[in-house]
Amino acid sequence: FIIAIDKFMKEDKKIFLIVISFFTIISNFYFCYKIVVLGFIYAILLFFFDNNDRSIKMFIRKLFGAVFCFLIAFLISSIILIPTIHTFLNLDTSLRNSLSCFYSLSYYRN
Length: 110
What we know:
The protein is mainly alpha-helical. The protein contains 6 helices and no strands.
């Protein structure tokens, strides 16, 4: 993911960022927001420390370009993401409780 952000910031390769973001969302959507936040911090540091053109206009242009790429990746990954979320939200409560790591104390007493 960091390589995709690096290529986007330096070479403006949007397709690579979209594909990598798509695979990040599909493979690990629970940790995706953490990866995106760290990637955003990396992009800010890369822009201000490794870029000769440090204007606010260029920063906003890169920011909107990255948000657009993430939005496209999210929309592509929604083919798998939306049915997964829908299935999880519509589980029976008895089945949903069995998905947790720990049971209630009454379960262990019996």
